[in-house]
Design goal:
The chain has two domains: 10-197 and 362-417, FAD/NAD(P)-binding domain (3-Layer(bba) Sandwich), CATH 3.50.50; 202-352, Orthogonal Bundle (Helicase, Ruva Protein, domain 3), CATH 1.10.8.50. The chain is 33% helix and 26% strand. It is built from 13 helices and 20 strands. The chain has helices at residues 21-33, 49-57, 75-84, 87-96, 116-129, 179-182, 184-188, 249-263, 280-293, 309-318, 332-342, 354-357, 399-417, and strands at residues 10-17, 38-41, 62-63, 71-72, 101-103, 108-111, 133-135, 140-146, 149-154, 159-167, 193-199, 203-205, 218-227, 230-241, 245-247, 268-273, 345-352, 360-365, 383-385, 393-394. The strands form five sheets. Strands 1, 2, 7, 8, 9, 10 and 19 form a seven-stranded mixed beta sheet that branches. Strands 12-15-14-13-16-17 form a six-stranded antiparallel barrel. A three-stranded antiparallel beta sheet has the order 3-6-5. A hairpin with a 4-residue loop joins strand 5 and strand 6. Helix 1 (21-33) runs parallel beside helix 5. The chain is elongated and about 85 Å long. The mean pLDDT is 96. It binds flavin-adenine dinucleotide. Residues 17-23, 41-44, 49-51, 53-55, 59-60, 139-140, 168-170, 173-174, 185, 359-360, 387-389, 398-401, 404 line the site of flavin-adenine dinucleotide.
């Protein structure tokens, strides 16, 4: 596909492939820990483009609760990496890059400016002030071993010779790229790849009318994932109905299991608990009060001021109630029917919104091939990994970036130490 020449256009101690969150963080750590020469090769015209989009432009860079249950992947590598670069060290490095942080009531951490661009600028200036050489529009398309070093070949026909390489190309999320092209460089090196799939992704629903009229409605609720008739996962949080299906934090957090099971051709449903905080007795009391107090009102008023109105109406319609009726038509049996279904308003998942709309890639480089202490490939000495390219991912809430920072730190620390 590419024609190569054999000139060397740059020689570096450490070459970092991918100028994203983990790669740029790595470059800063490598410079803080040594006076080695460090270069970053980035395929896009600018580094850190994805970080600019994180947290809806505010960058949720970590989370107060770093419990391992918020991550997917081998807990031993997670433990090892977080013990070497815990959150306190990460935030200290950011402090030295001029970033003050704040935590919101859910434990999510943001730059105090609430601007992702502050994180991008802190990292960008931090790297360039330390003398990291950045090559933008330089996609590495081939890695060859040359004696003890690595020859990196770029699509723009530049060649770079690097003693150590940190591979931090992120994942397929947000990209149009084909899987085989994305992983080609690694496949050529016989690196084991766990089949990737999108996670933190919106779900498409089978249901159309009248459910479509809930488009734009948000609701804090419980979400239960049901696979082949069994409830497998519960998440509490916000849902958002959209023109294609359903999104929101709670949905993003169950999307990993949903996508995995869809890929295995299982039947995936979502049960929405519209009132997770209320017991059946409390709901019955409230309904009984409303039937007495508002009996002559239209049925669409039943959940007014209690549940999002449009969601409440569609829920009642889904149970076969007629919105032209008055509230006092409801019998005791009807009240039972409402209570029996209010914790499991059910939707069938047809599909997901694909890598292009996903926030994160699950799968990637098998951690079995990687030394947990150093993040160095076990067979290919001198090749390190960081970030989402590894088969580790996290829930929504700052976990994926914390993994990028911490794994970026560890890979750089041990790459430097190996000289
Ligand atoms: C819309 C959106 C919002 C998000 N919000 C959050 C959030 O608020 N909090 C959170 O924790 N996580 C969030 N994430 C996830 C988070 O951004 C990623 O997990 C994180 O950026 C991964 O860091 P990384 O360094 O592994 O990859 P990236 O940051 O994706 O960087 C990889 C870089 O490598 C470059 N590259 C790829 N291949 C090559 C190659 N062959 N040669 C040269 N360069 C290459 C890419 O262009 C890219 O710049 C969000 C993701 C998206 C898409």
């Amino acid at each position: 596909m590419y024609s190569y020449h054999n000139n060397i256009d740059g020689e570096f101690d450490i070459g970092i492939i991918g100028g994203g969150a983990s790669g740029i963080f790595s470059s800063i750590v490598a410079k803080d820990e040594s006076d080695l020469s460090v270069a970053v090769f980035e395929s896009e015209d600018r580094i850190l483009k994805k970080v600019l989009k994180t947290g809806n432009g505010k960058c949720n860079l970590t989370n107060k609760d770093l419990c391992l249950s918020n991550f997917y992947g081998n807990p031993l590598i997670l433990k090892s990496v977080f013990s070497k670069c815990p959150q306190s060290l990460t935030l200290n490095i950011f402090k030295n890059l001029g970033i003050r942080v704040v935590f919101d009531e859910n434990g999510k951490c943001f730059p105090a400016s609430y601007q992702a661009s502050s994180i991008v600028d802190g990292l960008r200036f931090g790297a360039s002030k330390r003398g990291v050489k950045i090559y933008a529009e330089t996609e590495i398309v081939k890695i060859e071993k040359k004696d003890e070093k690595f020859l990196l070949r770029a699509d723009n026909r530049y060649n770079f010779l690097c003693s150590k390489v940190i591979f931090s190309t992120g994942g397929l999320a947000g990209l149009k790229k084909k899987e085989e092209n994305f992983f080609r460089v690694l496949k050529d090196l016989n690196v084991n790849i766990i089949k990737p799939f999108p996670t933190l992704v919106q779900l498409r629903l089978v249901e159309t009318d009248p459910f479509k009229s809930m488009e734009g409605c948000k609701w804090e609720c419980g979400v239960i994932l049901n696979v082949d008739g069994k409830n497998t996962l519960v998440e509490n949080g916000e849902i958002l109905f959209t023109n294609y299906g359903i999104s929101g934090n709670a949905i993003l957090n169950i999307s990993r299991e949903a996508v995995k099971n869809l890929n295995e051709n299982k039947k995936v449903k979502i049960l929405i608990d519209l009132l997770p905080e209320m017991t059946d007795v409390e709901i019955k009391d409230e309904l009984t009060f409303r039937i007495k107090r508002f009996g002559d009102y239209d049925l669409e008023f039943l959940f007014n001021g209690w549940i999002n109105k449009r969601i409440g109406v569609i829920f009642l319609k889904s149970l076969g109630f007629n919105m032209n009726d008055k509230i006092n038509v409801l019998t005791e049996k009807d009240v039972e029917k409402i209570i029996n279904n209010i914790h499991s308003f059910t939707f069938t998942v047809a599909n997901h919104n694909g890598f292009l709309n996903a926030q994160v890639m699950a799968g990637g480089v098998s951690v079995d091939d990687v030394d947990f202490e150093t993040l160095q490939h076990k067979r290919i000495k001198g090749l390190y990994f960081a970030g989402e390219i590894l088969d580790i991912d996290g829930k929504s809430g700052g976990y994926n970036l914390q993994w990028a920072w911490s794994s970026g730190y560890v890979s750089a620390f041990y790459a430097v130490k190996s000289f």
